[in-house]
Amino acid sequence: MSYHLLWLFVVAYPGGLFAGQDFDVAAHYSKQEYRIPMRDGKRLWTAVYAPKDGSQRYPILMTRTPYGVMPYGANAYPKRIGPSRKFAEDRFIFVYQDVRGRFMSEGEWREMTPEKDVKRGPNDVDESSDTHDTIEWLVRNVPNNNGKVGLLGTSYPGFYTSAGMIDAHPALVAASPQAPVADLYMGDDAFHNGAFFLIANFSFYTFFGKQDNPEMPRKEKRFDYGTKDGYKFYLDMGPLINADEKHFRFKNPYWTDIISHPNYDEFWKARNILPHLKNIKPAVLVVGGWFDAEDLSGTLKTYRAIQNQSSGIDERLVMGPWVHGGWQGGTGEKLGDIAFGSKTAEFFRDEIEFPFFRHFLKGGDDLKLPRAYVFETGKNLWQKEEAWPPPGASPVRWYFRANRKLSEDVPDESSGFDEYVSDPGNPVPFFARPTLDMAQEYMDADQRFIEGRGDVLSYKSEVLDEDLTIAGPISARLFVSTTGTDSDYVVKVIDVHPKGSGGPLSGYEELVRGEPFRGKFRNGFDHPEPFRPGEVEQIRFTMPDVYHCFLKGHRIMVQLESSWFPLVDRNPQIFTNIPTAKPSDFRKATERVYRCKDWASFIEVNMPPNAERQGGR
Q1: Domain spanning 394-607 has what CATH number?
Q2: Superfamily for 5-183+271-385?
Q3: 3-state helix, strand and coil shares in percent for the chain, rounded to the nearest 5
Q4: What is the pTM of this model?
Q5: Fewer CB atoms inside 10 Å of the end CB: C or N, the chain?
Q6: Contact 303, 309 (CB under 8 A)
């Protein structure tokens, strides 16, 4: 799901925000609206835009969404249609559907509808069956279709695309889950390593609520925060329970559900679509962005699940330098202060997405796409790989050392640690400027704004004398102790630009990847355990992939802190059920991070075979 309201609009709006002048949809397409019956009798609202030229047959390209298929009405046309202008001009039959229980569709909407592997009767329905039934109706009833269907969607519609590939209708020949939600708890929108993504979920659920009347679709109102400073708003809100008591007033069951399950229990396990992505038949184009603050994890896990569970299919991965849905509109030339040297989004739309669907749906030119088309940040180059991660990558460990050094040399000291005091009343901010949403540019933002804080540890390498590229996931292993009984640990990998260039990136501390870990889940996300104050514990977790080059003259920095607010909710630092914690539960704690022979904390990265090794140490 997308939490930035602009991207809510993008993923919902037929045609997205493709560049150039508006395409005159009404001049070239006829619109029909249908209530398509499902096997259990519920009817799903579906808008069909077909080319007015009926002299040939066209493939169907469909998106299913919980965000509404506006504009409603047989004579109401959007200004744009299709994923990009090329699609609109090349002529497809475009289909947009309100999923079950949303806007004009009947039935009950469920968060990440659990998949039913075995369907014993017409009342056993899920998103894969709804997609199957819709396609069956479309190919039988929409005039001039060529019997081939493509499916795509971004964010929550990406989840519906993934679901539609399961037990797919034979007419579904190509699908593109883009930034798909895959496992809400395990790294997607709701929780990251057990830590709740507060600002994202609050802003989403104040917008996304239960709909009771499918005959009267309504536009959700924007929540009034009463301030432009999200850090202040959430700190003043107090413990997480106050969100319901002060703001939702227990009237949004989706918010209540999500905070009522802080552990990885059956509620979440049933909503994990990844185990069901097996025996997939359509060709698949998985698309995501390295700076996707919402569903980077879902993208990479979807790609790997299909790869591991469906043999012999045509599956490809595209990863660009984009935020959530950032390939759908605009040029993709920069994010915040970081420029990428080319119009990456336009390149994707024209040279990857359009040829993919045209090839499989219309029998277009031979598809000259690699298995993985991935953008290497730092060097700002598109790379073609035969697989992802690149085969033959070698793991390299960067150890925390004394005097805040970062080195490949294993510590040989018998003892050693660094410490800081973490205060939930003064949490480390995640972004330099006041923001009420999950400002997506935080994903590569300059980290110098937290310099001087005593509750942040920074470990730096020597200046690199050669370029150094890392590709794939980043793993962290920390040895820690706390005076509390629970703590969070945020690990950030940073590219430190050299000073003296005179430009905006002089001395810039560019975030490459950052992830939190809630300490009580160190032995299992369904089995929280308290810390014993002062006892050394090991924490291991994996951060989402990167493809980044630290250029010659730069430094590598790893930062560690125990709050990232209000991106992540505050940990009271005592072992408790955080969604019901009281103000008195929030306490300061002294955190120690160990860097000695027996307790060597480090992060592990992967260097592809052609990458230069680090010269300086």
Answers
A1: 2.60.120.260
A2: Alpha/Beta hydrolase fold, catalytic domain (3.40.50.1820)
A3: 20, 30, 50
A4: 0.95
A5: C
A6: no
